[in-house]
Amino acid sequence: LLGSVTEKVLRKAPCPILTVPPHASPDPPHEVLFKRILCAMDFSPSALQAFGFAVDLARQANGLVTVLHTIEWLAEEEPRAHAHFNVAEFRQHLVADAQERLNALIGEEPRAWCELEGVVAIGRPYREVLQAAAARTADLIIMGAQGRGGMGLALFGSTTHQVVRAAACPVLTVRG
Amino acid sequence: MAHTHAIHASGRRVHAAQEATVVEFRNILCPIDLSEASMRALAYAVAFARWYDAGLTVLHVAPTFEPMQVRSGALANPVHVVYPITREEIEDELRRALNAAGAESVNASLVADAGEVAGTIVDRAARISADLVVIGTHGRGGFDRLCSDRSPRRSCERRRARS
Question: Which residue, A139, A140, A157, is CA-closest to A148?
Fold first, then answer.
C-alpha cells in the first residue's frame, strides 16, 4: 500500500516524525516557534496525543492552534423523495455534535498563553486539512499517525499519507 | 462549510497543567541522502536540537559498502569490480552538511549505515531511543526517489560541484 521511505518510516518508527516538504521555508529556523498550528482531530488516541503536542508547542510560541474535525460526508445532494429522514437536518446534527465535542476538548485545556480554535468541516479529511492549513498559512500541521480506521497500521492513515505528501509546511505525526 | 469557535485558554484551571503534554525532545534522528530536500530537513533538525538542547544523530544509509562485481553487456564481457562510496567519504559529506546547517553548538553524531533504507532508519531510531525523527520529503515524489535515483556518490559529486 505504501511505497516510499518516508511512508515506511511513518508507519514503523516508534516516535513522532517531523516531515519537512520541499515547499517549506528555505531559511533554516533559528527558533522552534510555531505561531499557527493546525491540529487534525478525529478523537482517536493518537489525535488526542497530537493535540497535547500542538497545545504545548503553541504555548511556547504564544501561538494559535486550530483544531479541525472533518466529517466525511460525501452525499452533498439534496435528499431524494424516498429518503426516510431529512439529510440536511442530519448533517447539521452531525456538525453540531462534532462542534460540541471539540468545544469540550478545547474547554478542558487548562493552559494559559495559547489560543485555541475549534473548526468543523465537511468533506474529504485530507483535503480539508490541507485547505485549512493553507487558509491560515499554518506553519505546522500536527496529526495522529493512526486515524479511526479499523485496520490501524495495515492501512496507515490515508489521511496522514496524503497530508504528508501535499502539505506546504512541516507535518508532525504523533503516535497515540 | 466550516463553523468557527474561538476560545482563549487563559484563566482556566491551571492546576491541571501537570497532566498536560510537555513537549521535550532529547534524541533526534535526521536521516539524510545529501539532496537539497534532505538538507532542508537537516536545518529543521538542527534547530530542534538547539532549541531543546537535544542530541542529534545524522544518518545516511547506503545500499552497501562492499565492492560489487558488475558485468556490462554480454555474458562474454569481463566482470568489473565497482567500489561504492566508502563509509569515511559519507561521514566527510555528513560533516560538511552539518557545518552548512550551522550545527556548531549542537551535540551531533554522524552515522553511515548500509542496508534497506527505511528499515535501517527505523532500527537506528530504536537503537538510539529517538524521540523525534526529522525527515525530508519530495512531496508527491517520495523520499525514496531521492535514494533510488541518486546514488550517494552522485549526490556527493553534485554537492561538491555546487560548492
Answer: A157
